[in-house]
Design a protein that fits this description.
Blueprint (H helix, E strand, L loop, with lengths): L1 H8 L7 H47 L3 H5 L13 H7 L2 H34 L5 H12 L3 H15 L5 H24 L4 H9 L4 H12 L1 H16 L3 H6 L8 H4 L12 H31 L5
Helix pairs in contact: 2-14, 4-14, 5-8, 5-11, 6-8, 8-11, 9-10, 11-14
Protein name: Carbohydrate ABC transporter permease
Keywords: Cell membrane, Membrane, Transmembrane, Transmembrane helix, Transport
Family: Belongs to the binding-protein-dependent transport system permease family.
């Protein structure tokens, strides 16, 4: 017993200088390895960001060139004389302003209709006992990933028979077909996380199903509604395939379609005006995302964790 107490009371061996140096060297190697990993990750992120931003920076650089400098073929990264003349020419050109207003009106109408229909469809799939709801939701997801160019041909035949070609109404319907599936899926996923007790309490007080939806569920689901609206607007705003396929009259053109005809003369195409128009139609989307990024993230992640 005494021997065991002596062993327990025996002080721990003091590490030698060689062992202490080895431990310190191992710690230094781990710190250097961690520093190299952080540096490598930072360089990788910087390269990805630079590659992603380079096309937009080049477009911005070209848009700030004068027509004379562009005709001379200056290839430097920065223009000799920065000028906003291309922006002024575009903003004073009715061939660009009218398509810009057409795009704004068509996208706002299609976004509003898409969000309303997606809200009703998502709530029905989430709350009502619909036979084959899983099949319907699967079809919605399948339609959301369907290629745009594959939808152009069938829609063109339908529009030709209905007389909807070369009209804003036909483009609104096309954008609804394009944006409705993803908005429905997003809202249905969020409605699944809304407590049913809120609806039951309102229905006990005499509210109808639609009153419960618009007065109780929609205010709670506003982040998802806002996110679906932003995504639908961006998809419609950036569309070129539908507009190119269904519109023929220049007065009905949207902004992406009108850009093709900007800055063209008999012998040369002035890409500085075209790139200035690209910046002008991209700027609203960038500002919208920057100001609403918190709502977008909260809407996309809502219901991910219970």
């Amino acid at each position: 017993m005494t021997g065991q107490l002596d062993v327990a009371r025996r002080p721990a061996p003091v590490p030698t200088a060689k062992q202490h140096h080895a431990r310190r060297s191992a710690r230094d190697r781990r710190r250097r390895a961690a520093a190299w990993r952080r540096t490598g990750f930072g360089l990788l992120v910087a390269v990805i960001v630079a590659v992603s931003l380079f096309p937009f920076l080049w477009i911005l650089r070209t848009s700030l060139m004068s027509s004379q400098e562009f005709s001379e073929g200056v290839t430097g990264f920065l223009p000799k004389d920065l000028t906003f003349s291309s922006y002024g020419d575009n903003l004073s050109d009715q061939n660009f302003l009218r398509p810009l207003l057409n795009s704004l009106l068509i996208c706002l109408v299609s976004t509003a209709l898409s969000v309303v229909c997606a809200t009703l469809a998502g709530y029905a799939l989430s709350r009502l006992r619909v036979r084959g709801a899983g099949i319907v939701l699967g079809f919605v997801l399948f339609a959301g990933f369907f290629p745009v160019l594959a939808m152009v041909g069938p829609l063109f035949l339908v529009y030709r028979n209905l007389g909807l070609l070369d009209s804003p109404g036909g483009l609104v319907l096309a954008y609804m077909v394009y944006t409705l599936p993803i908005a429905t899926w997003l809202l249905k996923s969020f409605f699944d996380q809304v407590p049913r007790s809120l609806e039951e309490a309102a229905m006990v007080d005499g509210a109808s199903r639609l009153q419960v939806l618009w007065r109780i569920v929609v205010p709670v689901a506003m982040p998802a509604v806002f996110t679906s609206a932003i995504i639908s607007f961006i998809l419609a705003w950036n569309d070129f395939a539908f507009a190119q396929s269904f519109l023929q009259t220049p007065g009905q053109f949207t902004a992406p379609l009108a850009i093709v005809n900007l800055g063209q003369s008999q012998f040369q195409v002035f890409y500085n005006r075209i790139d200035a128009a690209v910046v002008l139609i991209t700027l609203p989307v960038v500002l919208l995302v920057l100001f609403a990024q918190r709502r977008i993230v909260s809407g996309l992640t809502a219901g991910a964790v219970k």
